[in-house]
Amino acid sequence: MRVALTMLGILAIGAALLLPDVSYARPQQIETPVTVTGTVTDFKYGRRGEVEGFYLDNGTEVRFPEHRAWEVTQAVTIGTPVLVEGSERVGRRGDVHVKAQVITNTSTNTRVVIEEVVNVGGQIVEVTYSRSGRMNGFVLNTGDVVRTPPPLARALAALPADASVQVIGMRRIDKNGEQHIKPDTITNRATGRVIWTR
């Protein structure tokens, strides 16, 4: 009986490895798109004293990555009227805040784009790897760099070397100043199958 169960397990794993167009998904926190306006009353600081957001006069808390703080504080100061486009999120402690995608100083029309929704298609011309040797994304012939999560590596490895894909996601700048797309969906354009959805 044990031998039979072991063989079934091996066969199931083998079958999973051979399926190129399987969709992989992971649970995601629900985010509601929002646009809020108000006047900045104070900045939010992290444990190390870094700016990671601000508060509006209507009580809204706005957050953004700390490595973008310099850009934001050049465009926005206390007393600045702003328009914030982003998504409403619930934090680990149940706190509600807005994750900023675009912050606009409405008195000067200065914009800071934290994240940009993109829909790009192209051929994969290069696969990228982390320092540990794990596949962590790919480069399209459009020049766009796509960063992918670990569960997607197997599906990408099964695609042809010059596969054509459609990527919908967020273009952002990481803490090293490099621009990349964090995908929400990746579709194999040849088959129309979605191989990743977040």
What's a concise summary of this model?
This protein has helices spanning 2-18, 69-75, 153-157, and strands at 24-25, 32-45, 51-56, 61-63, 81-90, 96-105, 110-113, 115-129, 135-140, 145-147, 164-173, 179-188, 194-197.
List keywords for this structure.
disordered N terminus; 198 residues; 15% helix; mainly beta; 3 helices
Would you write up a description of this structure?
The chain is mainly β. The protein contains 3 helices and 13 strands. Strand 2 (32-45) and strand 3 (51-56) form a beta hairpin. The longest helix is centred in the first third of the chain and has 17 residues, at 2-18.
Major sheet: 7 strands, mixed
Termini, distance in Å? 39 Å
Strand content: over 45%
Helix content: 10-25%
- Low-confidence stretches at least 5 residues in length (pLDDT < 50)? 1-28
Mean pLDDT, nearest integer?
A: 84
List the strand order in the largest sheet.
1-13-12-11-8-9-10
| Class per helix and strand makeup | mainly beta
Number of helices: 3
Number of strands: 13
Shape: elongated
Write the layout of secondary structure elements.
Elements: H1 2-18, E1 24-25, E2 32-45, E3 51-56, E4 61-63, H2 69-75, E5 81-90, E6 96-105, E7 110-113, E8 115-129, E9 135-140, E10 145-147, H3 153-157, E11 164-173, E12 179-188, E13 194-197
Parallel strand pairs: 1-13, 4-6
Antiparallel strand pairs: 2-3, 2-5, 3-4, 5-6, 6-7, 8-9, 8-11, 9-10, 11-12, 12-13
